[in-house]
Amino acid sequence: MEPRLVGPGPYRATRLWSEIIELFRAGMPLRKHRCRFKSYERCFKASEAVDCLHELLGCNQNFGPEVTRDQTVKLLKKFLKNHVIEDIKGRWGKEDFEDDSHLYRFPPSSPLKSYPKKPSCGKEVIKFPDWNEPKAGTSQEHIPVKSMTMNSEMWYKRHSIAIGEVPACKLVFRRELTQTNIEEIWKSMTLLRLQKVLGLDSLDEVLDTKLVNSKHIVQNVYNVNKQGIVTLEDKSKELPHWILSAMKCLANWPSCSDLKQPTYSGFERDVFRTIVDYFGQMKEPLLTFHFFDVFVSVLGLLQRPCKAVEALQISCLLLPPENRKRLQLLVRMMARINLNQDLPPLSESLRTRTLMVQTFSRCILCSKDEIDLDELLAAKLVSFLMDNYQQILSVPSALKSSIEDHVVHLQRVQIKYAGADSAAMLPPPSFCHQISTDEFEYQRATGSQEPLAALLEEIVMNKEISVKNKKKKLKQFQKSYPEVYRVRFPTPETEAVLFPEKNKQKPPILMWALKKPFQPFHRTRSFRM
């Protein structure tokens, strides 16, 4: 069975769990083993299972070669707890799996999980705020249209060469945007961009959009220092000074200005242990429980690094400002420690990079409910964060520019022509306010047909122009505006009334010729006198 890439979308963790189980069951060699003078068919040793699964995870593009043997053992513990495997006596349910020679087998029942059913939180369509709704006591349903008045001569000059539409126009004065309006626009456009980058039809299965705080997005974008780190309005939520000093000490080792470094051996490990203890006691990970499914979905884009970076940029904007700041400081420290050749090893058994990923992955990403692949997924994400933290934890400039341009567009006074497609003027179309067909017909009639009807009536009632010119103008008007013309002259009879025919008596035809009989022509000769 060939491994396949599990892309972003709902229930990605469950799909990955099923993928790994299927690969493990298909790739694990089963043979006969002896234990305590007894033979057991179709089973395997624990160490063989670790070897096989570790190789499968390392070759799988959903996880990669950074998966350690220790992480593989932890995953097999969960396999035993969830009855993916059982010991040769049929026992399971505990995480007492060890990397040894104990014998295990696959149970006859299917270990695959069904997709979880999420609590219904109401399917919220991502839409832009109705900030242009009228205040109490006022009505903005029909924006008044200032009609263009022109006499018949002006109309004739304008239409003498080619008949074109004469649209009425109006100035649209936008209501002043409040801070709340701007925050809601930021939320709407940010979520729409995230949905597009993830390639999903809807964010409903990976995110409850009602839990996204629009204020957090705006604060994460604009309240930053020169280094791009978020500045908090509530200083009580800042990291303690002693933790900041410890993080700076290791990040800038051996040159640290905030702390007088003792000379005893192992000092750097004590500082590192202090940082680990502080972040390990947090009740919620930095990426929060609410956004777990979003970040797991982003992992499906790691084969396309540019898309993954943009998706993580946008997702990290949704975090509370205090979480985003702590994430920025922590990941920056981890990356600097990993690249610092002057820092003594912080572990005797693990490489520095592996130590950083394994130590801090759970305090960065984990699920509120127990998810079997939490540790592997978190390690994958944290590893990618360390490699691209400068881009991921910065404000996406393209998104910022597009939203700011749209806010300016909404505040600008515009000239609008009646009957024109206003939706084409407002990017994106989700900001437009949909109206009914009756409302559209009413606006079209009041916005353009009434001035044209008045112009037609002026042509009809004008007695100063000749009948010939009047007929010519009416014919031009009928060709350009047949609907308006049909309202004024619904039948040929109504049009005929305007030009009554005169009763003319036809002259008698050749009456003089009928009085004499026809006589042939006779040629005569003239004589000279």
TrEMBL record:
Keyword Zinc-finger among record annotations: no
The Rho-GAP domain, residue ranges: 201-393
A Pfam family recorded for this sequence: DEP
SMART domains for this protein: DEP
PROSITE patterns xrefs: RHOGAP
UniProt entry keywords in alphabetical sequence: GTPase activation
Biological process terms in GO annotation: intracellular signal transduction; positive regulation of Wnt signaling pathway
MF GO annotations: GTPase activator activity
Gene symbol of the encoding locus: Depdc1b
Keyword Ligase attributed: no
Protein name per Swiss-Prot or TrEMBL: DEP domain-containing protein 1B
Superkingdom field: Eukaryota
